[in-house]
């Protein structure tokens, strides 16, 4: 389909999805990979210390618990969605995360429908009170999850804003 746009409507009623670079890859359309089933990867980091639900960032080559106390610490790469063992975990980039550890929410169940923000006071935790309400200069308001049960929610890595 050389020379066709990325997507075009065929007058016959069929949507054609083309791949501009197909010729560079031996003619195969690599735009959609049906073998990818989740937005997550397994990570090996000796003694990581994470629990399910920790929002985490990347400091150099080391994964750390994210915190909204400043712009640098609030940069998240994802949320821990499973613990394999003391040295291995699954990092989820988006979508539903279940079995969120109660320590991540400050010790209580989540409120269904509430938006959860990166916690400015505790690394690796989320809170359902927007840090903008406190208005502490230099902290970050960064929504990261919408709860759909008391221990599960939809993880989104929205852009934060420094107060």
Compact description:
This protein has 163 residues and is an all-beta fold. Helices cover 0% and strands 35% of the residues.
What does this structure look like?
The strands form 4 sheets. A 5-stranded antiparallel beta sheet has the order 3-7-6-4-5, with no helix packed on it. Strands 8-13-12-9-10 form a 5-stranded antiparallel beta sheet, with no helix packed on it. A two-stranded antiparallel ribbon has the order 1-2. A hairpin with a 2-residue loop joins strand 4 and strand 5. The protein folds into 2 domains: 37 residues, no CATH class; 123 residues, Virus Head Decoration Protein, Chain: A. The chain has 163 residues and is mainly beta. The protein is built from no helices and 14 strands.
Q: Please give the domain count.
A: 2
Write down the CATH class of the largest domain: Mainly Beta
Average residue-wise pLDDT: 81
Q: Biggest β-sheet: count, sense, barrel?
A: 5 strands, antiparallel
Instruction: Give the SSE string.
Output: EEEEEEEEEEEEEE
C-alpha termini separation: 50 Å
CATH architecture of the largest domain: Beta Barrel
Report the CATH topology name of the largest domain. Answer: Virus Head Decoration Protein, Chain: A
Radius of gyration of CA atoms, rounded to a whole number: 20 Å
- Helix amount: under 10%
Assign the structural class, choosing from mainly alpha, mainly beta, alpha/beta, alpha+beta, or little secondary structure. mainly beta
Number of helices: 0
Shape: globular
Unreliable runs, pLDDT <50, ≥5 residues?
1-36
